[in-house]
Amino acid sequence: MSTEPIQPVAPSGIDLDRVTLIVTGADLRAEIADRPLAYRLQRAMLDWRDIYAPDADEPGTPGARPFDVIVCSDVWCLGNPEMMLRPLISVGGPAVNALTAHLADKAPSAFVIDDVLIVQLDPDLRDLRGCCWGRDHEATENAVTAFIDRYLDSYMQAAADRIEHGI
How confident is the model over 20-78, as pLDDT tens digits? Predict the structure, then answer.
C-alpha cells in the first residue's frame, strides 16, 4: 500500500486555482438543510461574477466566466489542504460542518446576533475564508442572507482580485 498522498483530480474544465468554494457539511442534516442554502449563495455569487467580473479577453461580455463558484462538502475541502487556501464560505454550524468547526475560533466575527447567528469574515478581506451559521436552520438561513446583503459585493471583489492575480 502506497503512503504517498492522493492528489486531487479536477473534473475536466475546472481550474482549481480559479474557484471560490462554498462548503457544507457531509452530515445528513447539513445535506438536507444547508446544501440548499449553499446553492442559493452560489447563485448570488455567480450572478455577481456574470455582472462584475467579465472575461479579461472579452471585456464587458455578459455571461463570461473568469472563475467558478463550486459547492462541495467539508470532507472534500478538509481532505485537500491546498483548498483551504482558496476563497471559501462555510455554511452550517460546527455540529454539522467540520470546516466551520475548524474555522470557528480562527475567523473573526463580522455580524452577530447573540446566541442566534453569526457571519464570520475578516473585515479587511485579507483572509477570504468565512462562515455563515446559526443556532438552527432558520438562523443559518438568516446568516446566509446577511452575508449576501452586507458582504457579498466586497467579498466577491476581493475573491475575483485574488483569483485574477494568483494570490
Answer: 999 999 999 999 999 999 999 999 999 999 888 755 455 545 544 578 899 999 999 99
Full DSSP string of the chain = ---SPPPP-PPTT--GGGEEEEEE-SSHHHHHHHHHHHHHHHHHHHHHHHHH---TTSTT-TT--SSEEEEEEHHHHHTSGGGGGS-EEEES-TTT-HHHHHHTTTSPEEEEETTTEEEE--TT-SS-EEEEEESSHHHHHHHHHHHHHHTHHHHHHHHHHHHHHT-
The model carries a pTM of: 0.86
Domains of the chain: 16-165 (3.30.379.10)
